[in-house]
Amino acid sequence: MQIITHSPEQTEQAGADFAKTLRPGDVVTLDGDLGAGKTAFARGVLRGLGYPGRVTSPTFAIANEYSAPDGTVVHFDLYRILDEEALFELGFEEYLDGTRILLIEWSGNAGGLLPAHHKSVRLTYGEQPDDRLLEIEEIHETTEL
């Protein structure tokens, strides 16, 4: 699915609409260039799940955990993660227990630790300064034996 937004508020609203599809155990990757709207989309997801508080980028904390009426959400920013070993040290695998919704910015830095089935949101710049193209898809990777 593709969505074009024309402001940060519309990107946030797209996240709130997307939140209706989420359940505990879902993993959502959020990828795009710096400033593309990943955190705005994540903020919208949290709003859509009923979280009323402040939502900030976890760039320096690496993970922010939120208790929303529709379940616990953990928002990761893996921008500063250099390898899977660093994620092991953070206990990343423990978050994949199926009880929380995970939002993961810069998911490429998770290496092979992402589950084979997850939802992907790719945000890219549009023609106008505030335009964003959101490409949302379900990923079903298979491993070859």
TrEMBL record:
It is found in: Cytoplasm. GO terms for molecular function: ATP binding; metal ion binding; transferase activity. The keyword Hydrolase does not apply. Its main location: cytoplasm. Keywords: ATP-binding, Cytoplasm, Magnesium, Metal-binding, Nucleotide-binding, Transferase, tRNA processing. It holds the Pfam family TsaE. One of its GO terms (cellular component) is cytoplasm. GO terms for biological process: tRNA threonylcarbamoyladenosine modification. Belongs to the TsaE family. This is tRNA threonylcarbamoyladenosine biosynthesis protein TsaE. It comes from Butyricicoccus pullicaecorum.
